């Protein structure tokens, strides 16, 4: 299984879990599917599909997300942006 995220998957996770936004409290902030869909130029259903694919690549499932969202956010925050430059 390929566990390398695409740039779109990486961006979506950072948007969904509000990684780049300032934290106002200890609560877990999330961006809406509607806002992400508009940002990425896809449907809300496609956002859900991409999110599930990305989390599966990271070895995470829905049950883990419900149990420890903060740990999941920390994992996503540590991910480096994928490098898409072509090597000669």
Short description:
This protein has 88 residues and is mainly α. The chain has 5 helices and no strands.
Descriptive report:
The protein has 88 residues and is an all-alpha fold. The protein has one domain: Arc Repressor Mutant, subunit A (Orthogonal Bundle), CATH 1.10.10. Helix content is 55%, strand content 0%. It contains five helices and no strands. It has helices spanning 7-16, 33-40, 44-57, 62-67, 69-78. It is globular and about 25 Å long. The two termini are 26 Å apart.
Major β-sheet profile: none
Question: What's the total number of strands?
Answer: 0
- Could you say what the CATH topology is called? Arc Repressor Mutant, subunit A
- Percent helix: 40-55%
Instruction: Quickly give the CATH architecture.
Output: Orthogonal Bundle
- The helix-strand sequence is HHHHH
Quote the distance from N terminus to C terminus. 26 Å
Output the radius of gyration: 13 Å
Query: In the residues, how many domains can be counted?
Result: 1
CATH class: Mainly Alpha
Mean pLDDT: 77
**Percent range for β-strand residues:** under 5%
The helix-and-strand class reads mainly alpha
């Amino acid at each position: 299984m390929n566990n390398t995220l695409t740039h779109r998957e990486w961006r979506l996770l950072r948007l969904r879990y509000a990684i780049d936004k300032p934290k106002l409290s200890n609560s877990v902030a999330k961006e809406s599917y509607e806002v992400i869909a508009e940002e990425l130029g896809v449907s809300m259903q496609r956002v859900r599909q991409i999110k599930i694919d990305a989390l599966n690549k990271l070895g995470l499932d829905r049950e883990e997300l419900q149990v420890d969202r903060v740990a999941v956010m920390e994992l996503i925050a540590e991910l480096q942006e994928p490098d898409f430059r072509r090597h000669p």
